[in-house]
């Protein structure tokens, strides 16, 4: 058939080299130097850091399966926490800290640094 490739699928049209004409606001990336600093006495928002979990787990010499068994979650949940695909609920984050013998604060990252 006309317009079919070697695999029998329809050929895709090529894209223009012209920029898209999307409507709506444009997004600009804000660097940490452009963000206003937090005034003294105001708590800085913090989130659970998966990379910190992975680093601390490895330093403790534990496998993902070991941590999962200690906190009562599946190894897939722990993998998701480490990769940042999921954020553990507070009781689970606390259980992770206990399983590794560390304070929960060790696993929290400043939101401004996590985004930058």
Structure description:
With 116 residues, this protein is mostly helical. It has a domain at 46-115: lambda repressor-like DNA-binding domains (434 Repressor (Amino-terminal Domain), Orthogonal Bundle). The chain is 37% helix and 5% strand. It has 5 helices and 2 strands. The protein has helices at residues 50-59, 64-71, 75-83, 90-100, 111-115; strands spanning 46-48, 108-110. Helix 1 crosses helix 3. The longest helix is centred in the C-terminal third of the chain and has 11 residues, at 90-100.
What can be said about this structure in brief?
This protein is mainly alpha-helical and 116 residues long. 37% of the residues lie in helices and 5% in strands. It has a domain at 46-115: 434 Repressor (Amino-terminal Domain) (Orthogonal Bundle), CATH 1.10.260.
Topology:
Blueprint: E1 46-48, H1 50-59, H2 64-71, H3 75-83, H4 90-100, E2 108-110, H5 111-115
Antiparallel strand pairs: 1-2
Helix pairs in contact: 1-3, 2-3
List keywords for this structure.
434 Repressor (Amino-terminal Domain), two-stranded antiparallel ribbon, single chain, 116 residues, elongated, mainly alpha
Shape type? elongated
Largest sheet: 2 strands, antiparallel
The count of helical stretches stands at 5
Question: What is the CATH C level class of one domain, in words?
Answer: Mainly Alpha
Number of strands: 2
What is the CATH homology-level superfamily of one domain?
A: lambda repressor-like DNA-binding domains
Work out the helicity level.
25-40%
How far is it from the N-terminal to the C-terminal residue, by CA?
51 Å
Radius of gyration: 23 Å
Strand content: 5-15%
Helix and strand composition category: mainly alpha
């Amino acid at each position: 058939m006309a317009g079919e490739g070697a695999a029998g699928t329809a050929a895709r049209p090529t894209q223009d080299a012209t920029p898209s004409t999307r409507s709506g606001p444009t997004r600009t990336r804000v660097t940490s130097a452009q963000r206003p600093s937090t005034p003294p006495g105001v708590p800085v928002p913090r989130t659970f850091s998966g990379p910190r979990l992975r680093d601390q787990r490895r330093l403790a010499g534990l496998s993902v399966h070991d941590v999962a068994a200690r906190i009562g979650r599946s190894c897939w949940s722990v993998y998701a926490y480490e990769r940042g695909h999921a954020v553990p609920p507070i009781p689970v984050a606390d259980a992770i800290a206990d399983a590794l013998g560390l304070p929960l604060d060790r696993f929290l990252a400043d939101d401004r640094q996590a985004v930058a």
